[in-house]
Amino acid sequence: MPHSTSAPRLGDLERVVMEHLWEAATAAGAGFGGATVREVHDRLSGEREIAYTTVMTVLDRLAKKDLVTRERDGRAWRYFPADTREALTAQTMRRTLDDMEVTDRRTALLHFLDGATSDELDDLKAALAEIESRAGPQPSP
Amino acid sequence: MPHSTSAPRLGDLERVVMEHLWEAATAAGAGFGGATVREVHDRLSGEREIAYTTVMTVLDRLAKKDLVTRERDGRAWRYFPADTREALTAQTMRRTLDDMEVTDRRTALLHFLDGATSDELDDLKAALAEIESRAGPQPSP
DNA sequence: CACCTCTACGACGCGGTGTAGTTTGGGAGA
DNA sequence: TCTCCCAAACTACACCGCGTCGTAGAGGTG
To answer: Is the CB of B49 under 7 A from strand D?
Structure first.
């Protein structure tokens, strides 16, 4: 039984392709975005040599892993990231935390914060405050 | 060039073996611990069928990935986890955050916290407080 | 010496990923 | 209508990581 982990991991090229989809999504002003195989291929061709079908295969696999969705656009498919970069990052981090079956979570988080810049700590505090306010003000214990 | 990511990811069996090393480390009261191939194999044999050399190979690969260290113990090697489970977890989480080249880190962290239990939030706050106190009391800005 | 135990090294199968060629189906123009 | 082009679909292949062992040596012990 050769390994499982049930976690869709990104390869190098897959990541690059996701980059372009994310860029396309933000560039198109939230509402739309996405890209066809040809569009992604054209962009990648500017940076390195790569076959059209290679891009197609990658997009296809990403779709099978539910990392992207697709809609018809004429005869071609238009691919969209299923999650934002931030959401995917968070998911992956969470999966790590869960998979490792850490008993002493506080210590793990402490180690994590050890490597954090003060900017990052600020980001974290901001996020924490946001969550708390969303959950409603806590009664003082 | 088939992928790289410079990230030592754990397979299923590798993880199981690490479990045993971590257990051995804590069971031995901080100071020592570690385990030989035979010890790990004996323990695994109780749960499933597995060859001695399989365990050896895994330990070997873990050593090459610097996830364990080893010292001579008679004719055998004694293997020690290079990091605690918590430290490794934190490392992996951090690597994810860095690799994904997230620009909006705050949003990513927000997504991360979205999936957190309130226990986990408490752990995080405790860790955060610890870091802050360690860095010395901040002068009010 | 014979034996036992450990290490070192190599091997094989399988799935994932990078990479691409070949086949097929359907619109668009001559 | 017939042809050509484009995009999709399918297939293929190599390489690497990991689970899985086997075999060959080396070095103590009875």
So the answer is: yes
**Domain range spanning residue B112?**
85-134
Q: pTM for this structure?
A: 0.90
In chain A, which residue ranges form alpha helices assigned H by DSSP?
12-27, 37-45, 52-64, 85-99, 105-114, 118-134
Pull the structure tokens for residue B122.
């408490």
Is the confidence at residue A5, as pLDDT, over 50?
no
Position B6 pLDDT exceeds 70: no
Q: Which SS3 state, helix, strand or coil, does residue A79 take?
A: strand
Decide if pLDDT at B14 tops 60: yes
Q: Indicate if A129 and A75 belong to the same structural domain.
A: no
Residues A28, A69, single domain; the answer is yes
Gap between the Cα atoms of B18 and B26, Å rounded: 12
Looking at the structure, tell me whether residues B70 and B101 fall in a common domain.
no
Instruction: Say if B4 falls within a structural domain.
Output: no
Nucleotide C15 C1' to residue A105 CA (A): 32
Could you say which DSSP state residue A140 is in?
P
Picking from B12, B92, B121, the nearest residue to A5 by CB comes out as: B12
- Measured between beta carbons, the chain A residues lying within 8 angstroms of B105 are 120, 123
- Find, among B3, B25, B5, B21, the residue nearest to B13 by Cα: B21
Q: Please tell me if residue A123 touches chain B, with a CB cutoff of 8 Å.
A: yes
- What pLDDT is stored for residue B30 in this prediction? 53
